[in-house]
Amino acid sequence: MKKLLATLALGLAVLGSTGAAFAQAASEPAAAASAVVEAASAVAEAASAVAAPVPNKGDTAWMLLSTLLVIMMTVPGLALFYGGLVRAKNMLSVLMQVMVTFSMILVLWAIYGYSLAFTEGNAFFGSFDRLFLKGVWDNVAGTFAPAATFSKGVYIPEIVFAAFQATFAGITCCLIVGAFAERIKFSAVLLFTALWFTFSYIPVAHMVWFWMGPDAYASADVVDAMNGKAGYIWQMGALDFAGGTVVHINAAVAGLVGAFMVGKRVGYGKEAFTPHSLTLTMVGASLLWVGWFGFNAGSALEANGYAGLAFVNTLFATAAAVLAWCIGEALMKGKASMLGAASGAVAGLVAITPAAGNVGILGGILIGFIAGFACLWGVNGLKKMLGADDSLDVFGVHGVGGILGALLTGVFNSPNLGGPSAVADWVTVGMVAPDAYSIASQVWIQAKAVLLTIVVSGVVSVIAYKIVDLVIGLRVTEEEEREGLDISSHGETAYHK
After folding, report:
1. Angle at 315 between CA 311 and CA 316, to 5 degrees
2. Model confidence over 306-323: pLDDT tens digits?
3. Can you tell which superkingdom this protein's organism belongs to (predicted)?
4. Please, what is the angle between helix 361-377 and helix 305-333, to 10°?
5. Residues whose CB falls within 8 Å of the CB of residue 467, separated by 6 or more in sequence, listed in order
Protein backbone atom coordinates (compact mmCIF):
# COMPACT_ATOMS: atom_id res chain seq x y z
CA MET A 1 0.00 0.00 0.00
CA LYS A 2 2.80 2.35 0.88
CA LYS A 3 4.47 1.57 -2.42
CA LEU A 4 1.19 2.29 -4.29
CA LEU A 5 0.77 5.66 -2.59
CA ALA A 6 4.39 6.57 -3.27
CA THR A 7 3.97 5.64 -6.92
CA LEU A 8 0.79 7.77 -7.25
CA ALA A 9 2.48 10.73 -5.58
CA LEU A 10 5.43 10.45 -7.91
CA GLY A 11 3.10 10.21 -10.91
CA LEU A 12 1.16 13.31 -9.86
CA ALA A 13 4.38 15.20 -9.39
CA VAL A 14 5.56 14.23 -12.83
CA LEU A 15 2.20 15.22 -14.39
CA GLY A 16 2.22 18.49 -12.49
CA SER A 17 5.67 19.41 -13.68
CA THR A 18 4.81 18.35 -17.22
CA GLY A 19 1.58 20.42 -17.17
CA ALA A 20 3.46 23.43 -15.89
CA ALA A 21 6.00 22.99 -18.63
CA PHE A 22 3.25 22.76 -21.24
CA ALA A 23 1.47 25.80 -19.78
CA GLN A 24 4.69 27.78 -19.86
CA ALA A 25 5.34 26.67 -23.43
CA ALA A 26 1.79 27.60 -24.42
CA SER A 27 2.00 31.05 -22.80
CA GLU A 28 5.24 32.04 -24.51
CA PRO A 29 3.69 32.50 -28.03
CA ALA A 30 0.83 34.53 -26.51
CA ALA A 31 3.27 36.74 -24.66
CA ALA A 32 5.34 37.11 -27.80
CA ALA A 33 2.24 37.99 -29.79
CA SER A 34 1.22 40.54 -27.15
CA ALA A 35 4.68 42.06 -27.29
CA VAL A 36 4.46 42.30 -31.10
CA VAL A 37 1.07 44.04 -30.85
CA GLU A 38 2.40 46.50 -28.30
CA ALA A 39 5.46 47.20 -30.45
CA ALA A 40 3.28 47.70 -33.53
CA SER A 41 1.04 50.08 -31.58
CA ALA A 42 4.07 52.03 -30.43
CA VAL A 43 5.36 52.24 -34.02
CA ALA A 44 1.93 53.40 -35.21
CA GLU A 45 1.79 56.08 -32.52
CA ALA A 46 5.28 57.23 -33.42
CA ALA A 47 4.37 57.35 -37.09
CA SER A 48 1.23 59.33 -36.25
CA ALA A 49 3.30 61.77 -34.21
CA VAL A 50 5.72 62.22 -37.10
CA ALA A 51 2.88 62.71 -39.60
CA ALA A 52 1.04 65.26 -37.47
CA PRO A 53 1.48 68.77 -38.97
CA VAL A 54 3.87 70.95 -37.04
CA PRO A 55 3.53 74.71 -37.74
CA ASN A 56 6.71 76.37 -38.93
CA LYS A 57 7.86 78.95 -36.37
CA GLY A 58 9.47 81.23 -38.96
CA ASP A 59 6.36 81.28 -41.13
CA THR A 60 4.20 81.83 -38.05
CA ALA A 61 6.31 84.80 -36.98
CA TRP A 62 6.10 86.30 -40.47
CA MET A 63 2.32 85.92 -40.54
CA LEU A 64 1.93 87.58 -37.13
CA LEU A 65 4.03 90.50 -38.38
CA SER A 66 2.05 90.68 -41.62
CA THR A 67 -1.18 90.80 -39.64
CA LEU A 68 0.12 93.73 -37.62
CA LEU A 69 1.12 95.52 -40.83
CA VAL A 70 -2.38 95.17 -42.28
CA ILE A 71 -3.86 96.57 -39.07
CA MET A 72 -1.52 99.54 -39.46
CA MET A 73 -2.76 99.97 -43.03
CA THR A 74 -6.27 100.50 -41.75
CA VAL A 75 -5.83 102.23 -38.42
CA PRO A 76 -4.11 104.66 -38.75
CA GLY A 77 -3.14 104.40 -42.47
CA LEU A 78 -6.44 104.44 -44.34
CA ALA A 79 -8.11 106.55 -41.65
CA LEU A 80 -5.54 109.35 -42.02
CA PHE A 81 -5.47 109.07 -45.81
CA TYR A 82 -9.23 109.49 -46.00
CA GLY A 83 -9.37 111.99 -43.13
CA GLY A 84 -6.95 114.39 -44.79
CA LEU A 85 -9.00 114.35 -48.00
CA VAL A 86 -12.28 115.55 -46.49
CA ARG A 87 -13.12 119.01 -45.18
CA ALA A 88 -12.06 119.82 -41.62
CA LYS A 89 -15.63 119.66 -40.31
CA ASN A 90 -15.85 115.99 -41.32
CA MET A 91 -12.40 114.80 -40.25
CA LEU A 92 -13.44 112.93 -37.10
CA SER A 93 -16.48 111.40 -38.77
CA VAL A 94 -14.26 109.63 -41.29
CA LEU A 95 -11.84 108.50 -38.59
CA MET A 96 -14.78 107.12 -36.61
CA GLN A 97 -16.29 105.35 -39.58
CA VAL A 98 -13.00 103.63 -40.39
CA MET A 99 -12.09 102.68 -36.83
CA VAL A 100 -15.52 101.47 -35.73
CA THR A 101 -16.25 99.67 -39.00
CA PHE A 102 -12.93 97.85 -38.72
CA SER A 103 -13.67 96.88 -35.13
CA MET A 104 -17.17 95.63 -35.93
CA ILE A 105 -15.99 93.47 -38.82
CA LEU A 106 -13.27 91.89 -36.68
CA VAL A 107 -15.92 90.78 -34.19
CA LEU A 108 -18.27 89.50 -36.91
CA TRP A 109 -15.36 87.66 -38.50
CA ALA A 110 -14.69 85.79 -35.25
CA ILE A 111 -18.39 85.01 -34.76
CA TYR A 112 -19.28 83.68 -38.22
CA GLY A 113 -17.26 85.33 -41.00
CA TYR A 114 -14.22 83.09 -40.88
CA SER A 115 -16.34 79.97 -40.69
CA LEU A 116 -18.45 80.87 -43.72
CA ALA A 117 -15.44 81.98 -45.77
CA PHE A 118 -12.79 79.36 -44.99
CA THR A 119 -14.44 76.05 -44.22
CA GLU A 120 -15.67 73.35 -46.56
CA GLY A 121 -19.24 73.89 -47.70
CA ASN A 122 -20.22 74.53 -51.28
CA ALA A 123 -18.75 76.61 -54.10
CA PHE A 124 -20.11 79.88 -52.67
CA PHE A 125 -20.23 79.59 -48.87
CA GLY A 126 -18.45 77.56 -46.23
CA SER A 127 -20.12 75.94 -43.22
CA PHE A 128 -20.75 76.75 -39.54
CA ASP A 129 -17.97 74.45 -38.33
CA ARG A 130 -15.83 77.32 -37.09
CA LEU A 131 -18.44 79.58 -35.48
CA PHE A 132 -16.74 81.67 -32.78
CA LEU A 133 -13.49 80.14 -34.10
CA LYS A 134 -14.50 76.84 -32.55
CA GLY A 135 -11.89 74.16 -33.13
CA VAL A 136 -8.87 76.33 -33.83
CA TRP A 137 -7.76 75.33 -30.32
CA ASP A 138 -8.20 71.69 -29.31
CA ASN A 139 -8.84 71.68 -25.55
CA VAL A 140 -8.63 67.89 -25.33
CA ALA A 141 -5.35 67.46 -27.18
CA GLY A 142 -4.00 70.79 -26.01
CA THR A 143 -2.87 71.79 -29.51
CA PHE A 144 -3.66 74.42 -32.11
CA ALA A 145 -5.28 73.30 -35.34
CA PRO A 146 -2.94 73.63 -38.34
CA ALA A 147 -3.73 75.62 -41.48
CA ALA A 148 -2.24 74.67 -44.83
CA THR A 149 -0.09 77.06 -46.83
CA PHE A 150 0.85 76.64 -50.49
CA SER A 151 3.68 74.14 -49.94
CA LYS A 152 3.15 70.48 -49.18
CA GLY A 153 3.85 69.65 -45.57
CA VAL A 154 4.11 73.29 -44.48
CA TYR A 155 1.62 74.69 -41.96
CA ILE A 156 0.91 77.67 -39.74
CA PRO A 157 -1.52 77.74 -36.79
CA GLU A 158 -5.07 78.18 -38.06
CA ILE A 159 -5.68 80.83 -35.42
CA VAL A 160 -2.96 82.98 -37.01
CA PHE A 161 -4.43 82.49 -40.49
CA ALA A 162 -7.86 83.46 -39.16
CA ALA A 163 -6.45 86.66 -37.66
CA PHE A 164 -4.63 87.56 -40.87
CA GLN A 165 -7.78 87.12 -42.93
CA ALA A 166 -9.80 89.10 -40.38
CA THR A 167 -7.71 92.18 -41.17
CA PHE A 168 -8.44 91.73 -44.89
CA ALA A 169 -12.17 91.67 -44.25
CA GLY A 170 -11.86 94.73 -42.03
CA ILE A 171 -9.93 96.95 -44.42
CA THR A 172 -12.12 95.95 -47.38
CA CYS A 173 -15.23 97.21 -45.61
CA CYS A 174 -13.43 100.39 -44.55
CA LEU A 175 -12.46 101.20 -48.15
CA ILE A 176 -16.14 101.68 -49.02
CA VAL A 177 -16.43 104.55 -46.53
CA GLY A 178 -14.59 106.94 -48.85
CA ALA A 179 -17.26 106.82 -51.55
CA PHE A 180 -20.06 108.40 -49.50
CA ALA A 181 -18.02 110.41 -47.00
CA GLU A 182 -19.36 113.70 -45.60
CA ARG A 183 -23.10 113.00 -45.87
CA ILE A 184 -24.06 109.53 -44.56
CA LYS A 185 -25.46 108.58 -41.16
CA PHE A 186 -23.03 106.79 -38.88
CA SER A 187 -25.62 104.13 -38.04
CA ALA A 188 -26.28 103.64 -41.75
CA VAL A 189 -22.60 102.94 -42.37
CA LEU A 190 -22.56 100.22 -39.74
CA LEU A 191 -25.78 98.50 -40.77
CA PHE A 192 -24.87 98.55 -44.47
CA THR A 193 -21.40 97.23 -43.74
CA ALA A 194 -22.73 94.31 -41.69
CA LEU A 195 -25.12 93.31 -44.49
CA TRP A 196 -22.59 93.73 -47.28
CA PHE A 197 -19.88 91.89 -45.38
CA THR A 198 -22.18 88.92 -44.86
CA PHE A 199 -23.57 88.61 -48.37
CA SER A 200 -20.80 90.00 -50.58
CA TYR A 201 -17.39 89.88 -48.92
CA ILE A 202 -17.76 86.41 -47.41
CA PRO A 203 -18.96 84.59 -50.56
CA VAL A 204 -16.43 86.32 -52.81
CA ALA A 205 -13.61 85.47 -50.39
CA HIS A 206 -14.78 81.85 -50.31
CA MET A 207 -15.13 81.66 -54.09
CA VAL A 208 -11.66 83.07 -54.74
CA TRP A 209 -9.50 81.73 -51.90
CA PHE A 210 -10.99 78.58 -50.40
CA TRP A 211 -9.45 75.28 -51.42
CA MET A 212 -8.45 72.06 -49.70
CA GLY A 213 -4.72 72.78 -49.48
CA PRO A 214 -1.78 71.15 -51.29
CA ASP A 215 -1.55 68.05 -49.08
CA ALA A 216 -5.12 67.11 -50.00
CA TYR A 217 -3.88 66.46 -53.53
CA ALA A 218 -2.22 63.18 -52.57
CA SER A 219 -2.72 61.43 -55.90
CA ALA A 220 -4.24 61.92 -59.34
CA ASP A 221 -7.30 59.94 -58.23
CA VAL A 222 -8.50 62.65 -55.85
CA VAL A 223 -7.81 65.77 -57.92
CA ASP A 224 -11.31 66.18 -59.30
CA ALA A 225 -12.89 65.60 -55.90
CA MET A 226 -10.60 68.15 -54.22
CA ASN A 227 -11.18 70.73 -56.96
CA GLY A 228 -14.91 70.22 -56.57
CA LYS A 229 -14.71 71.24 -52.92
CA ALA A 230 -12.97 74.55 -53.67
CA GLY A 231 -14.58 77.95 -54.19
CA TYR A 232 -16.21 78.65 -57.53
CA ILE A 233 -13.66 81.18 -58.80
CA TRP A 234 -10.76 79.02 -57.57
CA GLN A 235 -12.22 76.18 -59.65
CA MET A 236 -12.20 78.50 -62.67
CA GLY A 237 -8.44 78.89 -62.29
CA ALA A 238 -8.44 82.65 -61.63
CA LEU A 239 -5.30 84.14 -60.06
CA ASP A 240 -5.69 86.60 -57.20
CA PHE A 241 -2.65 86.64 -54.97
CA ALA A 242 -3.79 89.16 -52.35
CA GLY A 243 -7.24 90.47 -53.19
CA GLY A 244 -7.74 92.31 -56.49
CA THR A 245 -11.24 90.83 -56.74
CA VAL A 246 -11.99 90.03 -53.10
CA VAL A 247 -10.85 93.38 -51.72
CA HIS A 248 -10.56 96.16 -54.27
CA ILE A 249 -13.13 95.45 -56.98
CA ASN A 250 -15.58 94.15 -54.39
CA ALA A 251 -15.30 97.31 -52.26
CA ALA A 252 -15.13 99.70 -55.23
CA VAL A 253 -18.42 98.50 -56.69
CA ALA A 254 -20.11 98.81 -53.29
CA GLY A 255 -18.72 102.33 -52.99
CA LEU A 256 -19.90 103.36 -56.44
CA VAL A 257 -23.40 102.03 -55.81
CA GLY A 258 -23.39 103.91 -52.51
CA ALA A 259 -22.34 107.15 -54.17
CA PHE A 260 -25.36 106.89 -56.45
CA MET A 261 -27.88 105.77 -53.81
CA VAL A 262 -26.81 108.13 -51.02
CA GLY A 263 -26.73 111.01 -53.48
CA LYS A 264 -24.41 113.94 -54.08
CA ARG A 265 -23.12 116.19 -51.33
CA VAL A 266 -24.86 119.51 -50.81
CA GLY A 267 -23.14 122.02 -53.09
CA TYR A 268 -21.40 119.38 -55.22
CA GLY A 269 -20.28 120.95 -58.47
CA LYS A 270 -20.84 124.45 -57.09
CA GLU A 271 -18.63 124.64 -54.04
CA ALA A 272 -14.97 123.70 -53.60
CA PHE A 273 -14.40 120.39 -51.83
CA THR A 274 -10.67 120.68 -51.28
CA PRO A 275 -8.79 118.36 -48.89
CA HIS A 276 -8.24 120.02 -45.54
CA SER A 277 -4.83 118.40 -44.84
CA LEU A 278 -2.67 116.92 -47.55
CA THR A 279 -0.02 116.44 -44.89
CA LEU A 280 -2.21 113.87 -43.15
CA THR A 281 -3.11 112.34 -46.51
CA MET A 282 0.57 111.88 -47.32
CA VAL A 283 1.21 110.33 -43.89
CA GLY A 284 -1.72 107.99 -44.44
CA ALA A 285 -0.53 107.01 -47.91
CA SER A 286 2.93 106.28 -46.55
CA LEU A 287 1.51 104.05 -43.82
CA LEU A 288 -0.56 102.28 -46.46
CA TRP A 289 2.53 101.62 -48.54
CA VAL A 290 4.49 100.21 -45.60
CA GLY A 291 1.55 98.16 -44.35
CA TRP A 292 0.85 96.83 -47.83
CA PHE A 293 4.01 94.72 -47.63
CA GLY A 294 2.22 92.66 -45.01
CA PHE A 295 -0.92 92.65 -47.13
CA ASN A 296 0.79 91.38 -50.29
CA ALA A 297 3.88 89.51 -49.10
CA GLY A 298 1.95 88.04 -46.19
CA SER A 299 -0.47 86.47 -48.67
CA ALA A 300 2.25 83.95 -49.53
CA LEU A 301 1.47 82.50 -46.06
CA GLU A 302 5.14 81.55 -45.78
CA ALA A 303 8.45 83.37 -45.41
CA ASN A 304 9.72 82.13 -48.75
CA GLY A 305 10.64 83.24 -52.26
CA TYR A 306 7.07 84.06 -53.24
CA ALA A 307 6.80 86.37 -50.24
CA GLY A 308 10.02 87.98 -51.45
CA LEU A 309 8.64 88.34 -54.98
CA ALA A 310 5.43 89.92 -53.67
CA PHE A 311 7.48 92.24 -51.46
CA VAL A 312 9.69 93.43 -54.32
CA ASN A 313 6.75 93.89 -56.69
CA THR A 314 4.92 95.94 -54.05
CA LEU A 315 8.01 98.13 -53.74
CA PHE A 316 8.70 98.77 -57.42
CA ALA A 317 5.16 98.78 -58.84
CA THR A 318 4.09 101.44 -56.36
CA ALA A 319 7.07 103.64 -57.18
CA ALA A 320 6.32 103.28 -60.90
CA ALA A 321 2.70 104.31 -60.34
CA VAL A 322 3.73 107.42 -58.39
CA LEU A 323 5.94 108.49 -61.28
CA ALA A 324 3.28 107.74 -63.89
CA TRP A 325 0.59 109.71 -62.05
CA CYS A 326 2.93 112.70 -61.64
CA ILE A 327 3.87 112.59 -65.33
CA GLY A 328 0.23 112.41 -66.35
CA GLU A 329 -0.73 115.24 -64.04
CA ALA A 330 2.13 117.40 -65.31
CA LEU A 331 1.00 116.80 -68.89
CA MET A 332 -2.65 117.56 -68.04
CA LYS A 333 -2.28 120.48 -65.64
CA GLY A 334 1.27 121.66 -66.07
CA LYS A 335 2.40 120.59 -62.60
CA ALA A 336 2.44 117.52 -60.39
CA SER A 337 0.78 117.61 -56.96
CA MET A 338 1.23 115.97 -53.58
CA LEU A 339 -2.34 114.71 -53.79
CA GLY A 340 -1.48 113.14 -57.14
CA ALA A 341 1.66 111.46 -55.81
CA ALA A 342 -0.23 109.99 -52.85
CA SER A 343 -3.06 108.85 -55.10
CA GLY A 344 -0.56 107.32 -57.51
CA ALA A 345 0.98 105.31 -54.68
CA VAL A 346 -2.41 103.86 -53.74
CA ALA A 347 -3.17 103.15 -57.42
CA GLY A 348 0.04 101.16 -57.76
CA LEU A 349 -0.61 99.26 -54.54
CA VAL A 350 -4.11 98.36 -55.68
CA ALA A 351 -3.07 97.20 -59.14
CA ILE A 352 -0.19 95.03 -57.96
CA THR A 353 -2.28 93.31 -55.28
CA PRO A 354 -3.63 90.42 -57.41
CA ALA A 355 -0.33 90.16 -59.27
CA ALA A 356 2.17 90.51 -56.42
CA GLY A 357 3.35 86.91 -56.29
CA ASN A 358 2.09 86.03 -59.74
CA VAL A 359 4.26 88.18 -62.03
CA GLY A 360 7.93 88.89 -62.57
CA ILE A 361 9.60 92.12 -61.53
CA LEU A 362 9.43 93.76 -64.96
CA GLY A 363 5.76 92.78 -65.20
CA GLY A 364 5.15 94.35 -61.79
CA ILE A 365 6.81 97.63 -62.80
CA LEU A 366 4.74 97.78 -65.99
CA ILE A 367 1.52 97.06 -64.09
CA GLY A 368 2.29 99.90 -61.67
CA PHE A 369 3.22 102.32 -64.45
CA ILE A 370 0.08 101.58 -66.45
CA ALA A 371 -2.06 101.83 -63.31
CA GLY A 372 -0.76 105.33 -62.57
CA PHE A 373 -2.13 106.63 -65.87
CA ALA A 374 -5.29 104.49 -65.79
CA CYS A 375 -6.34 105.57 -62.31
CA LEU A 376 -5.59 109.21 -63.10
CA TRP A 377 -8.15 108.85 -65.88
CA GLY A 378 -10.44 107.01 -63.46
CA VAL A 379 -10.65 109.95 -61.03
CA ASN A 380 -11.06 112.51 -63.80
CA GLY A 381 -12.52 111.31 -67.08
CA LEU A 382 -14.38 108.21 -65.86
CA LYS A 383 -15.75 110.01 -62.81
CA LYS A 384 -17.29 112.69 -65.01
CA MET A 385 -18.74 110.05 -67.31
CA LEU A 386 -20.39 108.21 -64.43
CA GLY A 387 -21.69 111.39 -62.82
CA ALA A 388 -21.50 110.01 -59.27
CA ASP A 389 -20.20 111.93 -56.28
CA ASP A 390 -17.62 109.34 -55.27
CA SER A 391 -16.16 111.57 -52.57
CA LEU A 392 -12.67 110.09 -52.25
CA ASP A 393 -12.50 108.31 -55.63
CA VAL A 394 -12.92 104.79 -54.34
CA PHE A 395 -14.01 103.44 -57.71
CA GLY A 396 -11.59 105.55 -59.72
CA VAL A 397 -8.62 104.10 -57.82
CA HIS A 398 -9.68 100.77 -56.33
CA GLY A 399 -12.13 99.82 -59.08
CA VAL A 400 -10.03 100.81 -62.07
CA GLY A 401 -6.78 99.70 -60.44
CA GLY A 402 -8.25 96.41 -59.25
CA ILE A 403 -9.74 95.53 -62.63
CA LEU A 404 -6.55 96.50 -64.46
CA GLY A 405 -4.36 94.52 -62.05
CA ALA A 406 -6.57 91.43 -62.25
CA LEU A 407 -6.51 91.39 -66.05
CA LEU A 408 -2.80 92.14 -66.38
CA THR A 409 -2.04 89.34 -63.93
CA GLY A 410 -3.18 86.96 -66.65
CA VAL A 411 -0.74 88.59 -69.05
CA PHE A 412 2.42 88.90 -66.97
CA ASN A 413 1.98 85.60 -65.13
CA SER A 414 3.18 84.04 -68.37
CA PRO A 415 6.65 82.46 -68.04
CA ASN A 416 7.34 83.83 -71.51
CA LEU A 417 7.11 87.33 -70.02
CA GLY A 418 9.13 86.62 -66.89
CA GLY A 419 6.27 85.43 -64.71
CA PRO A 420 6.40 82.38 -62.43
CA SER A 421 3.49 80.72 -64.30
CA ALA A 422 0.55 78.96 -62.68
CA VAL A 423 0.38 75.57 -60.98
CA ALA A 424 -0.69 72.95 -63.49
CA ASP A 425 -0.74 69.95 -61.14
CA TRP A 426 -1.04 70.19 -57.35
CA VAL A 427 -0.12 66.53 -56.94
CA THR A 428 3.42 67.19 -58.15
CA VAL A 429 3.19 70.99 -57.81
CA GLY A 430 4.24 71.23 -61.45
CA MET A 431 3.93 74.57 -63.23
CA VAL A 432 2.41 75.30 -66.65
CA ALA A 433 5.21 75.05 -69.21
CA PRO A 434 6.05 78.15 -71.30
CA ASP A 435 4.85 76.56 -74.53
CA ALA A 436 1.55 75.54 -72.87
CA TYR A 437 0.72 78.89 -71.25
CA SER A 438 -2.05 80.80 -73.05
CA ILE A 439 -2.25 84.50 -72.19
CA ALA A 440 -5.61 84.85 -73.93
CA SER A 441 -7.13 81.95 -71.97
CA GLN A 442 -5.86 83.19 -68.62
CA VAL A 443 -6.99 86.76 -69.27
CA TRP A 444 -10.45 85.44 -70.15
CA ILE A 445 -10.54 83.52 -66.85
CA GLN A 446 -9.46 86.67 -65.02
CA ALA A 447 -12.17 88.68 -66.81
CA LYS A 448 -14.87 86.21 -65.77
CA ALA A 449 -13.72 86.46 -62.15
CA VAL A 450 -13.85 90.27 -62.37
CA LEU A 451 -17.34 90.27 -63.90
CA LEU A 452 -18.69 87.82 -61.32
CA THR A 453 -17.30 89.94 -58.48
CA ILE A 454 -18.87 93.09 -59.96
CA VAL A 455 -22.26 91.39 -60.26
CA VAL A 456 -22.23 89.93 -56.75
CA SER A 457 -21.10 93.15 -55.09
CA GLY A 458 -23.42 95.30 -57.20
CA VAL A 459 -26.56 93.27 -56.52
CA VAL A 460 -25.85 92.85 -52.80
CA SER A 461 -25.02 96.54 -52.44
CA VAL A 462 -28.24 97.75 -54.05
CA ILE A 463 -30.33 95.52 -51.80
CA ALA A 464 -28.35 96.37 -48.67
CA TYR A 465 -28.51 100.14 -49.23
CA LYS A 466 -32.23 99.89 -49.88
CA ILE A 467 -32.80 97.96 -46.65
CA VAL A 468 -30.78 100.52 -44.68
CA ASP A 469 -32.66 103.40 -46.28
CA LEU A 470 -36.00 101.84 -45.36
CA VAL A 471 -34.97 100.98 -41.81
CA ILE A 472 -33.00 104.03 -40.63
CA GLY A 473 -32.36 106.25 -43.67
CA LEU A 474 -29.06 106.70 -45.47
CA ARG A 475 -28.07 110.30 -45.10
CA VAL A 476 -28.12 113.12 -42.60
CA THR A 477 -30.28 116.22 -43.03
CA GLU A 478 -29.02 119.14 -45.10
CA GLU A 479 -28.60 121.21 -41.94
CA GLU A 480 -26.46 118.50 -40.30
CA GLU A 481 -24.41 118.11 -43.45
CA ARG A 482 -23.67 121.82 -43.65
CA GLU A 483 -22.73 121.90 -39.98
CA GLY A 484 -20.38 118.98 -40.47
CA LEU A 485 -20.66 115.39 -39.32
CA ASP A 486 -18.08 115.83 -36.57
CA ILE A 487 -20.48 117.97 -34.57
CA SER A 488 -23.84 116.68 -35.83
CA SER A 489 -23.02 112.96 -35.59
CA HIS A 490 -20.38 112.77 -32.86
CA GLY A 491 -20.56 116.03 -30.88
CA GLU A 492 -16.87 116.87 -31.19
CA THR A 493 -14.43 118.58 -33.51
CA ALA A 494 -11.03 117.60 -34.87
CA TYR A 495 -9.56 121.08 -34.42
CA HIS A 496 -10.24 123.80 -31.87
CA LYS A 497 -9.98 127.37 -33.05
Report:
1. 120
2. 999 999 999 999 999 999
3. Bacteria
4. 40
5. 191, 195
